[in-house]
Amino acid sequence: MLQQQKAVIMKDVMELTKLKTECLVQGDENRYLLISGTLLHLEADLNWIHQIEHRSGASF
Predict the structure, then answer these.
(1) Rounded to two decimals, what is the model's pTM?
(2) What are the pLDDT digits (tens) for 20-57?
(3) Are 20 and 57 in contact, with CB atoms under 8 Å apart?
(4) Which of 2, 16, 22, 38 fits a disulfide with 60 by CB distance 3.0 to 4.6 angstroms?
(5) What residues contact 58, with CB distance under 8 A and at least 6 apart?
(6) Are 39 and 17 in contact (CB under 8 A)?
């Protein structure tokens, strides 16, 4: 289950990173900042999953 969630998050990260770059090139500062915030939340989710895996000693 955790591996599936990580895969979904990583897919979202890749898509949002591309969109963030496009916003930067287009000068859309507001969308750039919103996407940056969303990416930070996704990073926190990944860190949380890694902590669960580390603490449980399991390779979900």
Answers:
(1) 0.84
(2) 999 999 999 999 999 999 999 999 999 999 999 898 87
(3) no
(4) 2
(5) none
(6) yes
